[in-house]
Amino acid sequence: MKKGLVLALALFLAACSGNKRMSNGQMIGLIGGGIIGSQFGGGAGNLLFMVAGAAIGGMGGYAFGDSLIPSDHAKFKESAKVAMDNIRDGEVYSWKNPDTGVAGTIKPTRSYYVDNGQLCRDFDATIAASDGIGRTHGRACKISADAWFVEGRI
After folding, report:
1. Which residue of 49, 83, 136, 146 has the lowest C-beta tally within 10 Å?
2. Exposed e or buried b for every residue in 28-56, given b needs 16+ CB within 10 A?
3. Closest to 27 in 3D by CA, of 49, 11, 4
4. Sign of the C-alpha dihedral computed for residues 39, 41, 46 and 52 taken in this order
5. Alpha-carbon span 35 to 29, nearest angstrom
6. Cα 8 to Cα 27: distance, rounded to the nearest angstrom
7. Contact 49, 38 (CB under 8 A)
8. 94, β-bridge pairs
9. 10-residue block means of pLDDT along the chain (154 residues)?
């Protein structure tokens, strides 16, 4: 019940935000903030905490997601390929975009094969930009000898 209410609230806030497109960070912030807010208060107070949490989370996600430019995303994906090919589970690979100063780490956490025999690896990543530090989890699956498909939002 609460999760459904949080999702409905997030969608409502997104519709009211005036943005034509919501960033992934903003959506995650809205939902995460709403869920965290739902843990406090009771009755009407609980709803107020959910609204406040969703609003704060959405603003934080919007600010961080919009601070990255295409070359930052490209550098992250390039670095993820290097990390997936060369770094063992639990080790950390550091990267930096020399054009923007945005930097981060990628740490593969688990390697496994899916049903079709494709190698996949879960990872944790951090990204440091002028607006703060973002953290994410993702999965990369090898799609050819030279390419990985990276699932994960930065």
Report:
1. 146
2. bbbbbbbbbbbeeeeeeebeebbbbbbbb
3. 11
4. negative
5. 10
6. 12
7. yes
8. 105
9. 49 49 51 55 52 53 61 88 95 94 94 93 91 87 88 65
15 CB burial (10 A radius; 0-12, 13-18, 19+): exposed
Are the C-beta atoms of 143 and 133 separated by less than 8 Å? no
| CA dist., res. 99 & res. 59, Å (int) | 26
Q: What is the C-alpha separation between 139 and 3, in angstroms, rounded?
A: 25
- Number of helices (H), then strands (E), belonging to the chain: the values are 4, 5
The angle subtended at Cα 109 by Cα 103 and Cα 114, nearest 5°, is: 120
What residues contact 17, with CB distance under 8 A and at least 6 apart? Answer: 58
The reported pLDDT for the residue numbered 70 is 87
